[in-house]
Design brief:
By secondary structure, the chain is α+β, with helices and mostly antiparallel strands. The protein is built from 5 helices and 8 strands. The chain is 25% helix and 25% strand.
């Protein structure tokens, strides 16, 4: 799963204030507009309580702002993979929300299957599953949860926002992962004949 995103902004979307090192920034991934574009909004945490973006919010997280270092490749940060999204959302400094917790649980299962994460048992209280990141050897704790049909329906909705809805049979595949939508005034193609 890959998604191209805008990098972390340098100013608050709400107030326009520049971020300073260590400022707590709330990031939102939102599907907006007729083209169903994914937009990232970065807002200073003190302005986030009144911020309600239009569109479907797939996830949000809070992080401490770190300015880019000179010579750092910004294009590298633009590619959001399942692994980098997991690392961002599972970071102990990211405050959990029900939506993020559900997404982290699903991503952990997916990354465990791909051998990117290795299960290392449960926490002492049994409330969290411990994972080791294969590359970095970093340890992450993911809240344990039940994998009910409702869980998968909710996760599917979040993932459809991030990676799009799968094409039905007969539709042309998307070129290079680019998402396209028909013009709003066009009629759907007819089936058969």
């Amino acid at each position: 799963m890959e998604l191209q995103l805008q990098p972390l902004a340098t100013t608050c979307f709400v107030s326009g204030e520049p971020f300073g090192e260590g400022d707590r920034v709330t990031s939102h991934l939102v599907r907006v507009g007729a083209a169903l574009e994914i937009v990232r909004y970065d807002v200073l945490e003190r302005h986030a309580t009144g911020f309600s973006p239009e569109g479907f919010v797939a996830c949000r997280w809070v992080q401490a702002y770190k300015p880019r270092r000179a010579g750092e490749n910004p294009d590298r940060a633009l590619k959001l993979t399942a692994e980098s999204l997991f690392v961002t959302l599972a970071d102990p400094t990211t405050e959990p929300t029900p939506e993020n917790t559900r997404l982290v649980q699903f991503l952990a299962l997916m990354l465990e299957r791909k051998k990117i994460l290795r299960p290392r048992g449960k926490s002492v209280d049994g409330q969290r599953v411990r994972y080791e990141h294969a590359k970095s050897k970093a340890m992450f704790e993911v809240p344990a949860g039940e994998l009910t049909p409702e869980f998968f329906v909710a996760v599917q909705e979040q993932l459809s926002v991030l990676v799009g809805v799968p094409k039905s049979k007969g539709e042309a595949p998307e070129a290079n992962g680019a998402k396209t939508s028909p013009p709003e005034d066009s009629a759907p193609p007819s089936q058969g004949a």
